[in-house]
Amino acid sequence: MSFDPTLADIRFGCGLSPNIAPADNVESILAGLQANDRMSVRFPIEEFPEFRKRMVERESVAKQLRKLRGTEEGKALTKQMRVLNKTARVDHFGWMAMHLLRRTHSKTPFVERLEGFWADHFTAAGKAGILRRAVSPYVQSAIRPNMTGQFGDLLVAAVTHPLMVHYLDQNRSAGPNSVNGKRKPGKFGLIENLAREILELHTLGVDGPYTQGDVVELAKLLTGLTMQAKQGRHFQKNLAEPGPETVLGKSYGGDNPHIRDIEAVLHDLAAHPSTARHMARKLAIHFVSDRPDPDLIAAIERAWRDSNGHLTEAYRAMLMHPSSWGAERPNVKRPFDFVSSAARALAVHPRSIQTLDEKELKQRLFEPMRLMGHIWQKPSGPDGLEEADSAWITPQSIAARLQWSVIVPRLLVPRLPDPRVFVETALGPHVTETVRFAAGAAESRADGIGLVLISPAFQRM
Q1: Domain ranges for the chain
Q2: What DSSP line would sit under 237-265, residue for residue?
């Protein structure tokens, strides 16, 4: 089995488009990873350092409000707080639209798929206040710029990012023998959340060669890693447990704790053979099959180790392997993959999305995806979205997909294409006679488009 341009757009891209030709070989796909990030320019999402200005302002207002609550000045501050929260909420939905438009119009769609994969692998979310709207800025600043270099750099950028520190409660972790720990015994405690997820999810995998002792030692090494609105990532030495700490048999740190100790252990974990194996399997499952060819996993793992975790080489190994190009398409599109591939097939014009207000974005995108089983940027846990197809193929999900397929496209495209043409556009050579006949026999354009979008041929990658 060899490279197939149409399959490349469906399996490793964002679906077929009537206006954008698929890449004609693997090297073209990989070259797209090094190209200028035109989608970030055309459909901008706020960088996290800019988002932190919102956090600083909110903290300032909250501090004043605590002193002036119940006064006329307090009422004005309460209104200001509501405006800050509303603006962030509106922008949150606007950034969802930007993610969709990037997938709809990108000439390098593998970039967008990789962003989705790594954002899910390094799941992080705000738990309260304005930080609940910080996921897209986190992805834009920590994930997107680091998807094609060394995995160690991506790992450091993601797991020491302020949003991850907040999400996994690292901000509240302190060494029992730290300056603050000794000063106020019982007030500060060691929190293992980030350490456990680094080992179990982000690097070695749940079956990796680590023990509970390694989790505790890594948690101690991570103490001092905090976040602040004004500074972003911050190392607070008074919270750091004096070292050394031993993780997987190697000693780190000492009596003068520093952020460099944390970066050192992360780079070592990134280079561990078990990380190569874990990540190779995860890439193969996400992009190719829930039950991938063991030889595909081995090829990705070998490339990962030979290149010391250079991500582009891992992608190359995946894209060059024959089993990546099997005609059978076993993976089901998750809700955002489905919605964005439909928008791409329909060539939805940017204005049709950018002019939608918050309520309309909720009605046409957010709420339908929720009914399909995916609450946008609100994970149920740090392990992210389910990869198993069974999680997405339920009676409720199928009904929601069908309803969206028939109703929403006509709201996004003023004049729907002829279903007899659209079926070829959306499915290419993978169209079946059954779907072709259904599209042509539909009573209306909306029905015909809906039948194509809900067909198994379109639902799979």
Answers
A1: 164-270, 335-459
A2: GGGSPPS-EEETTEEE--SS--HHHHHHH
